[in-house]
Design goal:
The structure is a homodimer.
Chain A (H helix, E strand, L loop, with lengths): L1 E8 L3 H8 L3 H13 L2 E7 L6 H16 L4 E4 L3 H10 L5 E5 L3 H14 L2 E5 L11 H17 L7 E4 L10 H16 L9 E5 L13 H14 L3 E4 L6 H10 L2
Parallel strand pairs in A: 1-2, 1-8, 2-3, 3-4, 4-5, 5-6, 6-7, 7-8
Helix pairs in contact in A: 1-2, 2-3, 3-4, 4-5, 7-8, 8-9
């Protein structure tokens, strides 16, 4: 399992300010700190609400590439934003993410196929809703994989993300359990002919809830996902205690 | 995943004293405390060096059964000791354990088959050595399973234990990694037609090393094994902090 940092995102005030001032240096410094904290990949998320975000993706990718040599995950629900990042990315990034939403199938999938990039398949249905059950999650994985293969991607290019819940959701703990099981099935080769690559985002768990739930909730989930065979854990690698709390998990996975 | 307590064993001074004095009450009290701490099974290990241990197994089983209603794991490398426990056990216990050692194949396997009990298969070779690699562990699992099926046990009766190392062993961390992977493969149904039940003992990790390695080493391994699909975790459930440290892991597995 490797760690990918989700710190380079628009809700991070350091990022927002750097984008506002078009100053690449804070972004480079942030990227370097993520690498030092153990990140082997960086997720780049500039937001997506306006045309401006396309330019911001390009600016972030450019800036970060000048700071560190880590592979990038371009993170946006908007194909236009992803395309701008792709255009300036020196290596081949991972695109994050496809769901069964018609607009994404129509726009993001062809983009990934045209550039032959790796692609994250978020297990979300055509309305962007997660499936409540394990069976539902696997059914979404099957359908997303079929769409991706039909578009010209290979199984090795696909990365399945079971969508970790926020712990304020009414059935959140049950969802966490089902996400861990989904990773185990997908990574273990129980669903497809090949053992699949998987990714899970940990930050959503305690988003707005860090005073309610301690960091140990996140690291325990990380350990269980790692045990289940997770390929990439997307996390706030700079939060206090995370590096120490995830060190042994990384060594053992 | 369920927890099995390994506290009812001869190296526990409370147990040693109770056996010396033939006083069932401390054993019953210990069993009750294990249950309160979250144990859903109790491992009974009276030692095995002399005839005396056969009587001690019977005494422990009798005593514990009068104290709590938990299923028992009879733990001894000696078929005679296991047989004495079986003779007085009210429910059907799990026998712990078979290895590829000729004496155990000759004595413990027929005992399990005759009583049609569940049986732990320790992944140890004919000299009682663990296999250093994942491939070696799986090969041992395949051979042990073949022997057990040939003796008349069914796949559902078998529980595979990958043998967690002591952290003083030179390649201990690598061994932990391989144990987690072995559980993932066995539990995930990647090795046999059926997803297999698995068990792992956590106490050996920090045996004589509790001042060197904190409890978190044990709970992190527990979380990763749980994520990998472990069925039974054998642990010192009464050590300070264990109940709190394992609570979320149990809820999520």
């Amino acid at each position: 399992m490797i760690l990918a940092a989700d710190n380079l995102q628009i809700f991070n005030p350091v990022v927002a300010k750097a984008l506002e001032e078009r100053d690449p240096r804070p972004l480079q410094e942030l990227a370097r700190r993520c690498k030092e904290a153990g990140a082997a990949m960086l997720d780049i998320n500039p937001g997506f609400l306006s045309k401006r975000h396309q330019e911001r993706m390009a600016f972030m990718v450019d800036a970060v590439q000048d700071g560190v040599d880590l592979p990038l995950i371009l993170d946006s629900p908007d194909a236009g934003v992803l395309a701008k990042g792709l255009a300036v990315c020196r290596g081949k990034p991972i695109l994050n993410a496809l769901t069964l939403e018609p607009k994404k199938l129509k726009e993001i999938l062809p983009l990934a196929a045209a550039h032959q990039t790796d692609l994250v398949l978020l297990l979300l249905d055509e309305r962007s809703f997660p499936a409540p059950t394990l069976e539902g999650k696997i059914a979404l994985a099957v359908e997303l994989r079929e769409r991706a293969l039909a578009a010209g991607l290979s199984p090795e290019q696909l990365i399945f993300d079971p969508v970790m819940p926020n712990l304020s959701w009414p059935d959140a703990w049950e969802q966490v359990r089902e996400c861990i099981k989904a990773v185990r099935l997908l990574a273990g080769g129980a669903v497809f002919p090949e053992p699949a690559r998987t990714m899970a985002g940990l930050s959503n768990l305690r988003s707005h809830l860090r005073r309610v739930y301690p960091l140990e909730v996140e690291t325990t989930c990380l350990a269980m996902l790692a045990g289940a065979g997770l390929s990439i854990a997307l996390a706030d690698v700079l939060q206090p205690g995370f590096k120490e709390g995830s060190k042994l998990i990384q060594e053992l996975s």
